[in-house]
Amino acid sequence: MCYRLARIIFAFFFFSFELQAAGATANNSWIDSQTGRHVIRISNEAFATLPYFTANIFTPDGGSMVYVSGRGLHLASLETFRTSLLVPVRNDELHCIEVGRVTGRVFYLSKSPGGSEVALRSVDPRSGAVVLHARLPGHYRIESINADETLAAGIREEPDPQRKPPSPNATKGELLYERVNAKIPMALFTVDLKSGAVRVIHESTDWLSHPQFSPADPEMLMYSHEGPWHQVDRIWTIRADGSGRRLVHHRTAPMEIAGHEFWSANGRAIHYDWQRPKAESFYLASFRLAESSRDAVVLTRQQWSIHFNASTDPALFVGDGADKDQVARSASSAGIFLYRLRAGDTQIFTEKLVDLSAHDYRLEPNARLTPDRQWAVFRSNLFGIPAVFAVRVDKKIPEGIAVRSTATFAREMQAERRKILMME
């Protein structure tokens, strides 16, 4: 048994080394035979991932992006896809928040041993210089940085050792009902990035989540009421001083849902997944803040994605698709998709960029378009463990790149990994 355990440990490190060395192999780049697009694996480390789909991961010059692996926080060039380690993980957990839109500093949280405290820091991607912005209690969670890099926003959930733990055998749906009905005291707060001062701007026993600062207005914040989507009015905005709280979408029909909200690139609109009723009618909705009005385009079941994301072109979106077990129940929607809006049209044109039929959607790809709209960046377990990939939007094909079925290639890599780890 000890021998087998030693083999497994050796195999794990061997596979990690294989990933780190993959930049010199053909396994890092191929042409998807189904879509004709160039696909690149960006991360060379094992267990690489991206921040949540709403987080900005790109530097202001559009030349680089960040991602996280088991080794730490990484910077990748969007021209060469060469990567470098910005912040190594030591004894504390590292959580990447997002990239500042002015300075390009990368903001992140790290936990103290035991988790009693979190530190909010940022690193300069050019010099590597690290700045400590604040130390906070361990139950404070930072999730967004505002447009001029003066404030961070987060959620505080009050700890209670007497609170009844979640039911051990409950389904995911049952756990959602338990949590939303628990009425746990929570607060939405900001942190002054210069002084470290904390300001509570909204307190509630509703389940608060996903604060997102506007990419343009440093005083505008969006957040959500979490829970079963057909029971909650989810999407809200509030000013950074706590004033002007407003509901973005009010449900008016049974089983209507609105969620996975995100900002337009110019901050003038909030986009979201709207279903009325759930799993039957699908829309990509846009709420224009200045006019307090909503537009929506119709999606077919096959066009629906778990997450959508905006680009610097207001008529261009990206989506991370879905498998047959997601709400749309489509067997042909596993992929990264490009969505184009045409003026005056209520429909949307969709094009698949890469086949993800070999991807396990329990890991959501969280796709986004690069600032120049040349690449869609996403995370995937195509090769058996999480990694970060990019797929080219157009069909420009470099010389010497092999054409492969992504699904077949992925299953071959998964089988090789199982063979290494399990000694099949």
Automatic annotation (TrEMBL):
Pfam families per UniProt: Pectate_lyase22 (PF14583)
Transmembrane region(s): none
SUPFAM superfamilies linked to this entry: DPP6 N-terminal domain-like
Signal sequence, renumbered to the chain: 1-21
Molecular function in Gene Ontology: lyase activity
Keywords on record: Lyase, Signal
InterPro entries assigned to the protein according to its UniProt record, in alphabetical order: Ogl_dom, WD40/YVTN_repeat-like_dom_sf
Entry keyword Lipid biosynthesis: no
Residue ranges of every copy of the Oligogalacturonate lyase domain listed in the record: 181-394
Source domain of life: Bacteria
Protein name: Oligogalacturonate lyase
